[in-house]
């Protein structure tokens, strides 16, 4: 998939954006949490017509970038040392690392305890914690998918064919045309109501693939307060 890089000037601002061409009829502009601008465009769209659309939407793009910028500086890089805090389902837990003959992760009141054969190895601690998050995520996400399906009048039409978990730097989830639901592993750090928002958002794409007005009507019917949930998610995991 070839990515095209462009920029336009809008007053005293310069807006850079990435274009990916797909088989589609409409052009879609998205501002990511890191303030980058990405555009999904029809294969036949000219660079000039795309630039004109970006210029028309420039006030909205800049407003979105200002919104995301208010959460900077973002969460500092994790060091995976004892005493550091880590999120799980919207709550902060302090990391405790202890020496043990067996590797094991245990959740207790306010604490994530890493029992490790190599307690002084940050890399080992990271690997164990990531593995624990992944296991918790698969169980919790499958549970929440079932809970979110009942929001639709015909759950069988939006049920995903499969679930994939991975780290995604610029999105919380995606739904492929074949029904493969991908969710960002970081979502296991968010509250359940935020996880439900992302899942419901993606399930709606089983009905309407693009972010068209019809799509947002479907999302509104399924989850009336989706905008509040989205905003809270971005505040917590910025």
Automatic annotation (TrEMBL):
Residue ranges of domain YgjP-like metallopeptidase in the record: 25-235
Annotated Pfam families: YgjP-like
CDD domains xrefs: M48_yhfN_like
Record InterPro entries: UTP_pyrophosphatase-like (IPR053136), YgjP-like_metallopeptidase (IPR002725)
Full protein name: M48 family metallopeptidase
